[in-house]
Amino acid sequence: MKINTLDVGVSQIVVAGIMTLFSFGNASAQEKGQIVRLARLVIDSTQLESYKAALKEGIETAVRVERGVLTLYAVSEKNNPSHITILEIYANHEAYQSHLKTPHFLKYKNGTKDMVKSLELIETDPISPKMKIKS
To answer: Considering the entire predicted model, what is its pTM?
Structure first.
């Protein structure tokens, strides 16, 4: 779903780098049926702090309680803080569809709909799916 095209920014480069750090085990994301996408948003700058608080709450809840949510990682551009990119990784299509129906996602979506100036959802393929996060 593409609502508005955003300029290529620092967050896109950062998230591309982050994506190479995540482990998908021995099989590729496609083989395992994982959903890997980027959500690029532009937020109304007058509501940015409220948006970030709602996003943080939604992400932390989803990662904590939803087994199929493997990663939700949000970054904002240093020189354009109202430009936010979220890396989303779901175990499979069913996990993604389930996520969309959870109370915490609906609270986030409904609570921030007037804060979001544009949203672009980008389906992706991991470049290096076997990479792991160092601990």
So the answer is: 0.75
